[in-house]
Structure formats: structure tokens, C-alpha cells
Amino acid sequence: MAAATFLLALAVVALGSGHVDAFDPNPLQDFCVTDPTSKVHENGLACKDPAAVVAEDFHFGGLDKPGGTTSKRFGFTANQVQIPGLNTLGESHVRLDVAPGGVFPVHYHPRAAETALVLEGSVYFGFVSSYPDNKLYAKVLRKGDVFAVPQGLVHFLHNNGTTPATLYASLSSQNPGLVLLGNSLFAGALPDDLVAKTLLTDQHTVQTIKANFRRS
Length: 216
Hints:
By secondary structure, the chain is α+β, with helices and mostly antiparallel strands. Helix content is 21%, strand content 28%. The longest helix is centred in the N-terminal third of the chain and has 21 residues, at 2-22.
């Protein structure tokens, strides 16, 4: 009996070791600069020939001012850092500018944790733990403050001050994903009755909110 137990434990360890050896999330070379001309489809982006890599592949300029994607509805501008040399390194970065009264609405990143550094102004920033606790962890952040959000948890920021706020966010994935809860519920094709039951409200209220999301 003892011998059988030992052999079973040894088999489990061997299987576990094989799995660890077969899964390596780390880069297998110094760098893998994105090759935008490649037609290869893979879990990530194809690499440029190392002989063709130059210093510019690791550089991005222009974060000294707002730019990129603008949301007039929510009052923010997001300027994503585009560095080909970050390919396969498991990180991404963005500058976020939020107008007074603006928000980056309730959302989550399914594949990344996030840290945000306030460069200018102040914001109310936080996240909510998972069910069943649903505990709020939030505070007002000012210039120089950093706040961390665990992977996959719902979070938000609100510029409830009187001056514009600027943040620099780093995420622990090359492709963190972005799920906006409001858009998922009201801008997609979920049936009105399902959304109403989910939010403990009526279909008329759901239709009214959906109409707001359809407006530009």
C-alpha cells in the first residue's frame, strides 16, 4: 500500500513537472520586434529579422501631450504607447488624460493587472473585489501617487476635481483586453428582458439607457 501511494505521488509530480517544462511564458530570445508585414497568424505577433532591428523599434515619442483615442461621451483621451520591441514582453502602456468631471468608466482587463501613476491633477480611483464580497478599494490620488489593480477586477477612475488630470498606466499583458461593463450591457445585443432581470429593473428603463448608448 505504501509503495502504491509512493508511485502515485511520483506520477503526479512527474506529470506536473512535464507541464511546467512545456509551458514557458517568457521570451525565448533577447527581443521579438513586431513585423507589421508578416501574414503569419499566431498567439501574438510575428518577429522581424533581428538583423533588420534598429533603435527606433524600442522608442516611442509624443507622450508629452494628449493624443490617440478620444471619448467625448466620457471625457477622456487615451494615447497608447506603440513600441514594436515590446512584442512578447508581456506589457503595455498608455497615457490617459481626463477632463474635469470626466471618467474612465467601470471596466476590467481580463488578461492584465494594472498600475497607474498620476502625473497631473487628482482622480478618484479604485476597484471592486470579486463576488460575494464586492468590496470597494478606492481613494483620491494626487500627483505622484500610484495605485495597483489586480488582474480581472472591475475598476474605474473619476476626475472629480476642477482641473484636467493625466495618468500613465502600465498593464501586465501585451494584449490586456478591455471590457466596458456599461457597453457590454447596453451597447450590445443582450435582450432587454435579460438585462432588466440582471439589474432588477424594468425593460423600459433598459431601453432608455440603451438609447443613450446609441447616441454619438
